[in-house]
């Protein structure tokens, strides 16, 4: 009886884990807002993984408040960790080339994602981010968490109007 319960529990946990991973990579039902390409194992559109906002919202959400050079007071950012986005596509590279709507491009070391708890923000102060106000997605470091983050290196990596990630 104990073995059967243990088997049932582990089967259920396995199914929950698989369904949450699969949910993140179902084909987008709405307009895609993020494309992830390069060294990824999970794809949902040819050689690319495309995410709509509902898929981004389905990933675990994190929040922090931090000062930035772009706002006159600390701002609350909410969204999935960059590490969770990379995990959803089973990324295996060491660098992430991030591209904005205006084609601004910056390379983010993949190690930054977990080392600094970088967020792909979808909300600022609990509100969706309009395109003309740096949205709909904004890669943000928790600048107030460490003095080393308050430098041009990390400010430049905080790309707004994010549209694509290429894992290298």
Q: Percent helix among the residues?
A: 25-40%
What share of the residues does DSSP label as strand, in percent? 25-35%
Shape: globular
**CATH topology tier name:** Sulfite Oxidase, Chain A, domain 2
What are the low-pLDDT stretches, counting only 5+ consecutive residues below 50? 2-24
Oligomer: single chain
Secondary-structure blueprint:
Layout: H1 2-24, E1 34-38, E2 49-51, H2 53-58, E3 62-66, E4 75-79, H3 82-88, E5 95-100, E6 105-109, H4 110-115, E7 119-121, E8 123-124, E9 127-128, E10 138-140, H5 152-157, E11 162-167
Parallel strand pairs: 1-11
Antiparallel strand pairs: 1-2, 3-4, 4-8, 5-6, 5-11, 7-10, 8-9
Question: How would you describe this protein?
Answer:
The chain has helices spanning 2-24, 53-58, 82-88, 110-115, 152-157; strands at residues 34-38, 49-51, 62-66, 75-79, 95-100, 105-109, 119-121, 123-124, 127-128, 138-140, 162-167. The protein is built from five helices and eleven strands. The strands form three sheets. The protein has a five-stranded mixed β-sheet. Strands 3-4-8-9 form a four-stranded antiparallel β-sheet, with no helix packed on it. A hairpin with an 8-residue loop joins strand 3 and strand 4. It is α+β, with helices and mostly antiparallel strands and 168 residues long. Residues 2-24 have low confidence and may be disordered. The radius of gyration is 17 Å and the shape is globular. The chain has one domain (2-167): Sulfite Oxidase, Chain A, domain 2.
């Amino acid at each position: 009886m104990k073995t059967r319960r243990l088997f049932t529990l582990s089967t259920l946990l396995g199914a929950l884990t698989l369904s949450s991973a699969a949910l993140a990579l179902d084909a987008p039902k709405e307009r895609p807002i993020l494309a992830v390409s390069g060294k990824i194992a999970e794809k949902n559109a040819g050689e690319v993984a495309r995410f709509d906002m509902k898929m981004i919202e389905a990933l675990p959400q994190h929040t922090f408040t931090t000062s930035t050079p772009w706002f006159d007071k600390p701002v609350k950012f909410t969204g999935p960790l960059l590490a969770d986005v990379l995990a959803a596509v089973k990324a295996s590279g060491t660098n992430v080339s991030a591209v904005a709507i205006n084609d601004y491009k910056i390379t983010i070391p993949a190690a930054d994602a977990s080392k600094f708890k970088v967020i792909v923000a979808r909300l600022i102060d609990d509100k969706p981010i309009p395109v003309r106000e740096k949205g709909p997605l904004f890669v943000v470091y928790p600048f107030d968490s460490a003095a080393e983050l308050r430098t041009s290196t990390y400010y430049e990596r905080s790309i707004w109007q994010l549209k694509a990630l290429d894992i290298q």
